[in-house]
Amino acid sequence: MEFTNNPKLDRPQQTKGKGRWIKFIIVTVLYLLFLWWIESWWGLIVVPFIFDVYISKIIPWGWWRKSRNTAVRSVMSWVDAIVFALVAVYFVNIYLFQNYQIPSSSLEKSLLVGDFLYVSKVSYGPRVPNTPLSMPLTQHTLPIFNCKSYLEWPHWDYKRVKGFGNVKQGDIVVFNFPAGDTVALNHQMEDFYTLAYREGHRLYPNPVEMDSLTRQQQRAVYDLYYEGGRKLILSNPQVYGKVITRPVDRRENYVKRCTGLPGDTLQLVDGQLYINGKMIPNPENLQFNYFVQTTGPLITEDMFRELGISKDDQWLLPDDADNLAILASMGLDALDAQGKPAPVYHLPLTQKMYDTLSGNKRLVARIVREPAAYGGDVYPLNLYTKWTRDDYGPVWIPAKGATITLTEDNLPIYSRCIEAYEGNKLEQREDGIYINGEKTDHYTFRMDYYWMMGDNRHNSLDSRYWGFVPEDHVVGKPLLVWLSLDKDRGWFDGKIRWDRLFKWVDNN
């Protein structure tokens, strides 16, 4: 600090010097509290730079402000603002909150397509990123350039810092897609494993009577399907695209409701959820798919709007012979006033919507719930269980520290947890099960796992199709809908859902 011989001039300089020290202490204390929170002291290397910014000023951080070139000052002011904004957004997105847009109808009517959510990272505790060097505001791909938005190195192990609580039964949760570790770039909406099994089935189309096979023989059939499909995908990049692997934090973000916690035994009976043998009340807006046959007239757009059924979900079935035969087998054989088959819609309905339609006897002749067989194959894809999306389990959800006995019946259910999520080498040989080269019939889980399902039960790809969600995949908890846009309407026709703005997310 410089002093003059004039006391009146010395006082302001002393005050200014004290101000710099006060700012430095405040910023440093806040930064140290942040390092304590994330439990990492590597960030101490930044403290000398903070000291230089406020006290020593050896590095000319604001050199451009003194430039006589106005163009330099103008450009660098923008660069300075953009860099600061990107750094701020980066840390806010990682440790505090991020935005998320609902892309599909899996949680309708609890959350709607076009809802923009405030997702709290601190509710469950933010994760330290696996790939810390990445471009803010991107998940895994840079727009325009169509390349990775992150660097593979450095790669940090999973770590979650303290938050305000834990995931609870009934919470709506944002998480990274568990089966999204391996992706065929031309089929990114479908996980690699489902794609491989599907293509394997296509290569070997002859039906197999699984009831007549032993577990070992069944496993051989499923191995054949998977390997055949896998080889087909890898050998045809022009069709399926390049096959890549993604770190946990660079997989797609999904949002579902947590219906099962670590250590729970979950079961679905005719669509009704049971946890540990106890029936769990359904969410208010739970939906199933139905076939709705009218008395003859078509359902009007005004009624669809009143019911809250989007255009994507308004499916009027064609009246060809094959469809009519299938519908007739379900009792949907009503005729209109001219003696022709009455129109049949395929619609997702809540109980309230069902009651509204079924009560309109002048319009609706019959309503039949969509059969469970329409749901396709469920998790695990390599085990013959006869489970469906409506009648599933019972299945035990792994808990950290819990040990299970491994058998031919449950190994396909837990093998992905053991291999993909917890990084072990699992082999099933003729003489038994080997983990990391050692024969064993037990396994102790190192992480907690969750079961996630959508409220739109028949239009939701969830844990029934790809299994458990590991704790290291949990991103955060949606708290608030800050914007909601209806894709079926124009800007002057109710596109903004004003009644949903700043609405708290129902986590019950």
Automatic annotation (TrEMBL):
The chain crosses the membrane at residues 21-38, 44-63, 75-97. It comes from Candidatus Bacteroides avicola. The keyword Hydrolase applies. It catalyses: Cleavage of hydrophobic, N-terminal signal or leader sequences from secreted and periplasmic proteins. The keyword Transmembrane helix applies. Belongs to the peptidase S26 family. Gene3D superfamilies: Umud Fragment, subunit A. GO terms for cellular component: membrane. This is Signal peptidase I. Residues 76-285, 401-482 form the Peptidase S26 domain. Keywords: Hydrolase, Membrane, Transmembrane, Transmembrane helix. One of its GO terms (molecular function) is signal peptidase activity. The active site is at 106, 256. The lineage of its organism: Bacteria, Pseudomonadati, Bacteroidota, Bacteroidia, Bacteroidales. GO terms for biological process: signal peptide processing. Its EC number is 3.4.21.89. It is an enzyme of class 3 (hydrolase).
